[in-house]
């Protein structure tokens, strides 16, 4: 494994740790000249075994971080792996820093390696001074937003967007945008969190907001249907709605995954570890020397790193999964800590993006998992519209462990005996076995699914907002294969009686709300046609009702709990 891919792998495995996420560029003989061909490059030649290099590490990190987005680029060459390149560059000791301009060596850094000295050296030879963040401007003039954004959130602040600045920022990509209305309660709650997020994503991901009270038509053209609504706009590809947890850490992790490279390289030695660390993941196989087709990159990008996509041409991995080494490619989905393939696809450079994308979406979820605020939307609103066997568990203790074990066991049994006849390829529904903390979500589980204690089972069909809690004979579902597997079969056939996950009042409110939103949109799209007394009347009523009743997040259907929200 190349050092850079190892670094990526470690970064991905350690994403739960508050690791410094400075992005290092490691160059090899293959891409050195090509990479440094334009602009200024400050290159450190180092050896992982040299104590001076290690001592200089934190200073280097700080420099890379502080100059991110400036016109001076930073890169490293590992001289243990690239001895010849270091010889060619005339390196005589470690660490040795050289400044290149348009591919040509300008000058070698000498003397003490303090942050200050390096900074002055760079300024002297490039004219670029260290970007200073000490006095951030309070309000950014319109015309500065574009240039500023090229540096991806240099000040760690939320950018307030207007319809004019919006297009430019989104075109640059890697920006997380909050659409809000000043009067909405959940928006107010999110505001300080959003500021913390901007701070946490400094230099990496732009964090912005749009006031939908001021810019209605921008919000409706972006498909905003409730407040607050969070969209991530990647550097290329379509925007994605973020609907996970609204804790800073969760949003930060998610955004960091989203801007990570699409592919992570995998070696055989790391297989067990990555399978342990990811409840679902993909591996794309290519024969040595044959590169993966761009269609896979396009299909994988919208996943935004969850689940991660690894690539490999390691012979041991081909052997492990019994794959033939051909000019065709293979995709494998691994789930639930199992190192044997849960699904497999052979594809070629001609396979369409749509087909690849469909396959990736279909195999995105593990078979058994815990549902909490972060994963609720991901599971329930998955494109594959799974049926979810939902089991309540206690917060901790032996009892919880036993129930979770049972659920996992049922998932494994389903996979062995029934899953093949219920794979989406056969036109039927995917099944996910999940457990949820009943103590934490007491009132939510009760009002949503009538669950009143631990170890209760329902089968949820969230795409239709219904659930099943009895078998065809009318007895309550119990935590065993006979009860659950039969009910799953009946639910798929549509012969089981359903219950609605929302109560009547909520469904009514929702449908009224949808209608009012549609009217509001019509008004802003066709102002003259609808600028009548009638429409104005409705608008007035709408605003009054909304202010009275809807001062909360109404995008999600799971808000029925009195004291619990799943975000
Ligand atoms: C240079 O090549 C190495 C090895 O293939 C790779 O890990 C690294 O990402 C490349 N660096 C750049 C800046 O392209
Ligand atoms: C699952 O498989 C078992 C054993 O093969 C079978 O008895 C049962 O009917 C199957 N259930 C469904 C829903 O297909």
From TrEMBL:
GO terms for cellular component: endoplasmic reticulum membrane. PROSITE patterns: THIOREDOXIN_1 (PS00194), THIOREDOXIN_2 (PS51352). Its main location: endoplasmic reticulum. The keyword Signal applies. It comes from the Eukaryota. It is a single-pass membrane protein. The keyword Signal applies. It is found in: Endoplasmic reticulum membrane. Gene3D superfamilies: Glutaredoxin (3.40.30.10). Residues 8-127, 129-260 form the Thioredoxin domain. The chain crosses the membrane at residues 528-549. Coiled coil: none annotated. Residues 1-21 form the signal peptide. Keywords: Membrane, Signal, Transmembrane, Transmembrane helix. Probable disulfide isomerase, which participates in the folding of proteins containing disulfide bonds. May act as a dithiol oxidase. Acts as a regulator of endoplasmic reticulum-mitochondria contact sites via its ability to regulate redox signals. This is Thioredoxin-domain-containing protein. It comes from Russula ochroleuca.
